[in-house]
């Protein structure tokens, strides 16, 4: 069953085009993670936060990615990382046009 993974952490930048330029290779590599269907990158320059909302095909893949990603961020000196896995109410999500079905 597909699940949503939400990850948030403090982020001091860069933002906008510089963020895109610096993180494009990382973004491309995320497509190769087992079970990852899509990611929406989140960023708030005013509150100095970033992260993402992901759709994974199964909870085990989301949890494995969260563990790897948390370790990667910590190696980069990031603290205060939060990660949560959510099950999806597909019937209600469909009413609101949510793209939650893995391909």
Automatic annotation (TrEMBL):
In which domain of life is the source organism classified?
Answer: Bacteria
In its UniProt entry, what is this protein called?
A: Putative mono-oxygenase ydhR
Write one Pfam family the protein is assigned to: ydhR
- Return the NCBIfam families for the record: PRK11118.1 (NF008333)
Recorded hits in InterPro entries, A to Z, give: Dimeric_a/b-barrel, YdhR
């Amino acid at each position: 069953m597909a699940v949503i993974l939400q990850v948030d952490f403090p982020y001091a930048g860069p933002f906008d085009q510089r963020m895109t330029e610096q993180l494009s290779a990382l973004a491309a590599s995320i497509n190769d993670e087992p079970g990852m269907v899509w990611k929406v990158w989140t960023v708030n320059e005013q509150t100095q936060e970033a992260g993402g909302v992901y759709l994974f095909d199964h909870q085990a893949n989301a949890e494995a990615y969260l563990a790897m990603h948390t370790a990667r961020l910590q190696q980069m000196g990031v603290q205060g990382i939060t990660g949560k896995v959510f099950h999806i109410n597909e019937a209600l999500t469909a009413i609101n046009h949510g793209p939650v079905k893995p391909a």
